[in-house]
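so my prof wants the structure for this chain in the tokens format not the other one, which i didnt know existed until like an hour ago. anyway here's the sequence
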Amino acid sequence: MDSVLPIAILSAIIGIVIAFLVFGNYFQKRKAEVESVAKPEIIQTNQKTSKPQQSHKNTSKKSQPKSHSHTTDHKDANKRHHPLDLNTLKGHGDIVTGVCFLPNAQSLATACADGVVRIFKLDDALSKSFKFLRINLPAGGHPIAVAVADETSSVAVACHALFGSSLYMYGEDKPKADADSKQAKLPLPQIKWEQHKVHDKRAILTLVGTKATYGSADGSTIIVSCSEGTDIVLFHGKSGKIVGNVDTNQLKNNMATISPNGRFIAAAAFTADVKVWEIVYSKDGAVKEVSRIMELKGHKSAVTWLCFSPNSEQIITASKDGTIRVWNINVRYHLSEDPKTLKVFPIPLKDASGTTLHYDRLCVSPDGKILATTHGSMMQWLCMETGKVLETAEKAHDGDITDMAWSPSPIPMGDKKVLVLATASVDKKVKLWAAPSLNAS
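here's what i got, hopefully its the right format
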């Protein structure tokens, strides 16, 4: 018994020593491993932090002001990035789908995908803020276009929903005098008429209104609605009654418009030819019929957009064949006279590889001298006489331009008046642009 105890104690001591040596060796290895992993990380971190610090010391005096200047310039560029850029109408909650000036020129109506039509009062194009009337459309409809309807402050709005397209005409009642103030208050525009399923379940592509003054027309506003199918419907602006129908007999419409005097309708349908109809008015001024009278043949590829000249005697077309054509349609078609091509201009717009691009939209100034064009978010102004580029805005908006319209007459800009072009975009903004000088190059 006495001899067993010392042996057990000795064995325990030897076991502890061996365990100490084993675990000591293990922890030493782990420490070495940790150091070998940690050191490169520390060095890498020091390199990453030390280099920027060194770079910051070397460049702080130069790069920091540049960065600050760039930010400032960027903000300024957003405000006035082009010499023709006058102002931006903000506050829209979604894509702005349509714009149109009312006859008084100082009121601009905008249609927005947020379900609101806004009528801005443009007392001065350089104003820092604009007053506007807010028209909330019926729930469920998505505004896609707005057009002049009748009188001074009436607008027609095209909306699209699952069940089809609808038209709403908003007009203001006559001002009522307040007994206390004895001043006339303008009530908010109210729905005067509405039409549903205008093109069955098809969407409306374009909506245009004009005052009919040709021949025996009584001066009523005619509204032309073009569907994505093959049909075009004419409405009486004040009553909302359908006064005419057109079938383009094409695969699919692209757009349609009416001449400023209410005489002609022209449609582009993704083909090289453009069809033209004439609105015939009866002696009492009402629309009697709409008859097809001519085709514009000459383009070699699809016509992307067209518009009428202010005098309603010419049509300007843009095509994917890389040209713009100006047509004389004031011919004796009943004597089989064909429309004549007056001018052909090459589209002065090319991509990086040199391929000619096409224009998405066209719009002629009310004096007939300037052609405004768009391609995506870019804008160009061309001289109608020569076809030369007057000005270009490479990035007029931060997204594709959805619509544009010229003011029917000059509007105030500071101490003078200028012709103004309004553009709408998917960037939720409407911009106002001054007409370029015809001497620009």
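also thought this was worth mentioning. Residues 4-79 form the longest helix (76 residues).
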